[in-house]
Amino acid sequence: MTEPVLSLEHATRRYGGFTAVDDLSFAVRPGEIYGFLGQNGAGKTTTLRMIMDIVPPTSGTVRVLGSTSPRNVRRRVGYLPEERGLYRKMKAADSIAYFARLKGVPRAEARSRADALLERFGLGEFRKTKIEALSKGMAQKVQLLSVIAHEPELLILDEPFSGLDPVNQQLLEDMIGELRAGGRTIVFSTHVMEHAERLCDRFLMIAHGKKVFEGTLAEARALDGERLVLVTPDDPAPLRGVPGIASIAPLGGERFALLLNEGADSQAILAACLQHGVTVNGFGADATSLHELFFRFAGASPAPDVQREAA
Ligand SMILES: Nc1ncnc2c1ncn2[C@@H]1O[C@H](COP(=O)(O)OP(=O)(O)OP(=O)(O)O)[C@@H](O)[C@H]1O
Q1: Which domain of life is it from (predicted)?
Q2: What is the C-alpha to C-alpha distance for residues 1 and 220, in angstroms, rounded to an integer?
Q3: Which of the chain's termini has less CB crowding within 10 Å, N or C?
Q4: Positive or negative, the Cα torsion across 105, 109, 114, 119?
């Protein structure tokens, strides 16, 4: 099997008596987009900081590009920190070139890469604009370009979508896809499951500093079991206890997920709906979203928007 680009083995980080990251192990393979998912305070940033050697693990090992000393491979890694920071008075192209030079790219090369990147990502006309005069989304794109200008093999992006409007979020998704197509490995953290669902090859889900799942979406769905979606204006409670139905979860409005036991017969369940007087306006197999899977694995209550929908 190919060497992982990045791995943690039993990494733990404590702050005083508080354990922010608890015995975390995972491995990222070359060329994949790897999503790091967790709610606020789950330990995502702390883990990314351990990877970047900004905070050392209290115990356990971090291995980046084959080295247990991340400082040795810094020039091969690009890191977008949670706290954004560009010099407001610097021009866009200068800013990108500056960060590339910090990572060892010669001056002339850094300049030409900065211009080429701005051009490629639709900011060519803003190359001489000061950061303070750019919109927030544009400044964030410039920051991301600053992180990739030294052509790192591995990109670590902490909440790269936060603060971007939907158009810029889509642009960033495209950009991440493009970087992967160019052979980079990308790890990004998010609490917005939709980005991860669209982009990632594999995911790590953490809750309270602990791993609750690592794998592909298909693997998460397989672990979760099969489900049917029932659309009904009625309360589906009478279906509880029907053979084959493990549980019933509201999806919002008139939609309910029926989680099935192994070998459940969907036709028998449809018949049971009619027998119990539950109106069936829609009934069929449906893939579980990453959003729902996350809440199931993380053991948390649904996000407020889901609760609102369900109410
Ligand atoms: N320097 C620190 N000192 C004390 N506690 C800390 C420190 N850094 C992080 N923590 C705590 O560790 C936990 C994990 O924080 P972390 O920032 O890693 O979470 P996160 O998953 O990135 O959350 P968010 O999505 O809100 O950024 C939190 O409870 C946080 O308060």
Answers
A1: Bacteria
A2: 22
A3: N
A4: negative
Structure tokens at 170: 């889509």
Q: Which residue did the predictor score with more confidence, 299 or 231? A: 231
CA distances to 12, 91, 226, 227, 231 from 262, rounded to whole Å, are: 36, 60, 8, 10, 22
Give the mean model confidence (pLDDT) for residues 209-228: 88
Digit-coded pLDDT (tens) for 162-189: 878 888 888 888 889 988 999 999 999 9
Nearest residue to 58 via CA among 101, 23, 102: 23
* CA 231 to ligand 1 center in whole angstroms: 40
Say if strands 202-207 and 18-28 run parallel, antiparallel, or are unpaired: unpaired
Name which residue sits closest to atom 8 of ligand 1, judged by CA.
46
| 3-class DSSP state of 225 | coil
C-alpha 147: how far from its chain's center? 18
Query: 221-310: which CATH number, 3.30.1360, 2.30.30, 3.30.420, 3.30.70?
Result: 3.30.70
List the residue whose alpha carbon is closest to atom 18 of ligand 1: 43
This prediction has a pTM of 0.82
Task: Choose among 287, 291, 298: nearest CA to 197.
Answer: 291
Amino acid at 94: D
Residue with CA nearest ligand 1 atom 29: 41
The boundaries of every CATH 3.40.50.300 domain in the chain are 6-215
Q: Which residues of the chain does CATH 3.30.70 include? A: 221-310
Amino acid 299 reads G
Q: Whose CA is nearest to atom 28 of ligand 1?
A: 41
The H-or-E segment that residue 292 falls in is: helix 290-298
**Total Cβ atoms within 10 A of residue 99:** 22
Distance 45 CA to ligand 1 centre (A): 7
CATH 3.40.50.300 fits 6-215, yes or no: yes
